[in-house]
Amino acid sequence: MGDERYRCKHLVLVASPFQGHMTPMLQLGSVLHAKGFSITIVHTKLNSPDPSNHPEFEFLPLFDNFVAIDASTNFTKFVEVLNENCKLQLQQRIQEANHKKITIIYDNTMYSGEEVARNLNVPSIVLRSCSASYMPAFLALPKLHSEGQLPIQDSMLQKLLIPDLYPLRYKDLPFNNTSTQEITEMLALTNPIRNPSAIIWNTMEFLENSALTKLQQYYKIPIFAIGPLNETARCPTTSFLNEDTSCISWLDKQAPRSVVYVSLGSLATMDKKELTEAAWGLANSKQPFLWVVRPGSVNGSEWIEFLPDGFAEEVEGRGLVLKWVPQKQVLAHFAVGGFWSHCGWNSSLESISQGVPMICWPFLGDQYVNSRYLTYVWLVGLELEHLERRVIATAIRRLMVDDEGKEMRKRANDMKEKAKNSLCNGGSSFNSLNNLVEFILADYN
Ligand code: UDP
């Protein structure tokens, strides 16, 4: 149990409407509540968390004026307008709540949290929910643009290693086709991380030690690597979409480590041709599969209207297609032996935490860097070169059946153990969390 003396110490967590950001923020809230702090979650009306899942928190909504985030949204513009729309209300809500002593912990996309903290003369800390290894690539973008290496003009360059950014290739860079002007705008918003007093990173030292060291030198403020939050937080669902739990009884009937779980997270989309190739790749692999196709994620359709004729008959009894599932539970299930993923950082951490090896098919942002580390450095994943049925079926067999996959599973299990150890008494994340608590309390004295 936490220390009850801290209950008067109030933490205001400013959450972001992206699923991959909301989840670690709520998990952080649970972890810090368990340490004894009182927690307020300030969140947008768009993609609100469900307060009934977290009766221990206070929730304060902000009217953001958005109705949805879709794949065509210009990320930079969206985040900018979101912050403009929310900043004043954020300050007002916090003032109205009238808690005596607070620290603001804000998601990096809700950077107005830092300005509000300054206005209110209270400390602020930023939560980063991407991989630490992503940041050196992100920070290198201005130089690569000024040298004319970006945006990528020549597709032959894609597979080459980038000088000074080993092991990354040009194809692993985030936004490698984005114009110099858009990159400049994005960096002006997000880099440097304004002026918080510390950074909380959802990662582990054993996994990203070298990147964390570089970031420590770059930011020159304390960095607390306290992940994986998915393992420490005692939180019920954090999903915006309803989780279809029928998959668990279906998994119960499958052989151990036989099922490939497929999910591309909350933002990635496909077109009809890609869906067709994915479907036949799964069918031809002859492995059982659980495939999450998010409603609206196939361009031009509501759900799975574009699945090819004959697919349902071909995979009957062996394949299950659902809209959204309790992913943590799925990855922890004995029947799941592999994860075909877009390599979002939460999904990557959840897979590592369960010792499940991956097939990596990144779509955007840090996912390319994550994929490179999973497949080339940590050796717990296979890179999917093309979204083509034969390539997919072969990758699934390599991961699920071949000796190569067995080796990956062993390494993934080693990582699972290391992740557990880092959270145990004396482990790096355990210590880092205690240091974070001390750091926050020091500001109250
Ligand atoms: N997720 C889930 N059910 C699903 C698919 C995804 O609960 O059917 C969760 C997953 O466990 C992860 C989050 O959605 O915590 C996705 O975050 P991630 O960082 O992996 O990717 P993003 O959605 O930000 O691209």
TrEMBL record:
* Any Pfam family matching the protein: UDPGT
Species this chain originates from: Helianthus annuus (Common sunflower)
- Give the molecular function GO annotations: quercetin 3-O-glucosyltransferase activity; quercetin 7-O-glucosyltransferase activity
Q: What CDD domains does its record include?
A: GT1_Gtf-like (cd03784)
Q: Which InterPro entries match?
A: UDP_glucos_trans
User: Could you confirm whether the keyword Glycoprotein appears in this record?
Assistant: no
Reading the lineage from the top rank, the first entry is Eukaryota
Name the UniProt record assigns to this protein: Putative UDP-glucose iridoid glucosyltransferase
What the record says about family reads:
Belongs to the UDP-glycosyltransferase family.
Any single Gene Ontology cellular-component annotation: cytoplasm
Q: Which UniProt keywords apply?
A: Transferase
Q: Which PANTHER family match?
A: UDP-GLYCOSYLTRANSFERASE 72B1 (PTHR48045), UDP-GLYCOSYLTRANSFERASE 76H1-LIKE (PTHR48045:SF30)
